């Protein structure tokens, strides 16, 4: 087992970021002294607009401590029966109700079944995005609250979205979480191409808009990485980052392509006059860009230079 000398502060306390100056900086704590590390060490949670990150590794005292006879922990999973118990109560699930208003009910029901969308008791019926890997193991479920009318995430007073995890809600102790792509369970020998977005909701909407493709989601900007994409190494990948994230995902894709991946990063959202942070789902909902959306569909289906 690996014991790190430093870990990010788990409290809600934030400091000014050394790079952007915003009070969104989470500092590292020395596990031995329980004191903060130097002020430059930490992570800015403005992942898209700043993305400052500095782990304490500039001196030996900052290096992680490795014990001999290191034991690799088994990845924790959740029983399928738990997942199955949540595939109901869609009349109180705001995200599902939002999708029912925009798309044919039978098509939404097919997507619910396809992606195992659940309903939680938290946040008045929040959606559960289950993370099931390509072997059928359930890693966890992300619980997210949405507005029925707008389909947007509901936030707390501090501006953070209402998010929780199934394993945390179940108060599972010593849970060794190893996340995977949302929708990874759809991978099989017949899937030759996978389209990846950041948001789970966007993966659902794009599956409704373009069901001929297999859509998956990273769940966050930083989820576009080797650990998540490894099962897709022998599959063609077309990544669709949010507006403003093209350069970051392109840099990752370039590194992974040098290791044998086949990743193309789309700049469809970058080419059009969309707002910073918008994604494909926002583009499809934007009535003023019908021609751009039509072109986007053409590009996606031909997999031309995207």
Which labels suit this protein?
14 strands, single chain, 26% helix, 4-stranded antiparallel beta sheet, 306 residues, alpha+beta
Please give a quick description of this structure.
The protein has 306 residues and is an alpha+beta fold.
Explain what you see.
It is a single chain. The chain is of the alpha+beta class and 306 residues long. Helices cover 26% and strands 18% of the residues. It is built from ten helices and 14 strands. The protein has helices spanning 80-86, 94-102, 105-115, 166-169, 200-209, 226-229, 246-257, 268-271, 280-285, 290-302, and strands at 2-3, 6-8, 25-30, 42-44, 53-54, 65-66, 117-119, 127-132, 138-144, 163-165, 193-197, 214-217, 236-239, 262-265. The strands form four sheets. The protein has a four-stranded antiparallel beta sheet with strand order 2-3-4-5, with no helix packed on it. Strand 8 (127-132) and strand 9 (138-144) form a beta hairpin. The chain is globular, with a radius of gyration of 20 Å.
Distance between the termini: 43 Å
Number of helices: 10
User: Per DSSP, what share of the residues sits in E-state strands of 2 or more residues?
Assistant: 15-25%
Query: What spatial form do the alpha-carbon principal axes imply?
Result: globular
| Beta strand count | 14
Average predicted local confidence, pLDDT:
86
Q: Structural class from helices and strands?
A: alpha+beta
Topology:
Blueprint: E1 2-3, E2 6-8, E3 25-30, E4 42-44, E5 53-54, E6 65-66, H1 80-86, H2 94-102, H3 105-115, E7 117-119, E8 127-132, E9 138-144, E10 163-165, H4 166-169, E11 193-197, H5 200-209, E12 214-217, H6 226-229, E13 236-239, H7 246-257, E14 262-265, H8 268-271, H9 280-285, H10 290-302
Parallel strand pairs: 11-12, 11-13, 13-14
Antiparallel strand pairs: 1-6, 2-3, 3-4, 4-5, 7-8, 8-9, 9-10
């Amino acid at each position: 087992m690996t014991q790190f000398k430093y870990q990010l502060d788990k409290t809600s306390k934030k400091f000014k970021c050394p790079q952007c100056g915003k009070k969104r900086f989470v500092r590292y704590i020395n596990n031995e002294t329980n004191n903060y590390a130097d002020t430059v060490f930490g992570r800015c949670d403005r992942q898209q607009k700043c993305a400052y990150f500095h782990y304490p590794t500039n001196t030996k005292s900052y290096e992680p401590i490795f014990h001999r006879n290191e034991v690799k922990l088994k990845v924790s999973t959740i029983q399928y029966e738990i997942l199955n118990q949540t595939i109901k109560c869609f009349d109180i699930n705001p995200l599902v109700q939002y999708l029912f208003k925009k798309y044919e009910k039978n098509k939404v029901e097919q997507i619910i079944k396809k992606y195992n969308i659940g309903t939680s008791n938290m946040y008045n019926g929040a959606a559960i995005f289950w993370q099931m890997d390509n072997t059928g193991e359930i890693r966890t479920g992300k619980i997210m609250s949405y507005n029925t009318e707008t389909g947007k995430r509901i936030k707390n007073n501090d501006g953070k979205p209402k998010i929780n995890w199934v394993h945390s809600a179940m108060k599972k102790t010593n849970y060794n979480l190893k996340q995977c792509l949302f929708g990874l369970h759809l991978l099989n020998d017949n899937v030759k191409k996978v389209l990846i977005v950041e948001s789970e909701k966007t993966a659902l909407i794009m599956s409704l808009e373009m069901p001929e493709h297999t859509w998956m989601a990273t769940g966050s900007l930083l989820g576009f990485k080797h650990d998540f994409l490894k099962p897709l190494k022998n599959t063609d990948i077309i990544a669709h980052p949010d507006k403003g994230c093209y350069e970051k995902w392109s840099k990752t894709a370039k590194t992974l392509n040098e290791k044998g991946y086949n990743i193309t990063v789309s700049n469809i959202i970058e080419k059009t006059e969309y707002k910073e942070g918008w994604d494909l789902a926002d583009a499809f909902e934007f009535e003023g860009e019908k021609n751009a959306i039509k072109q986007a569909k053409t590009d996606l289906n031909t997999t031309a230079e995207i």
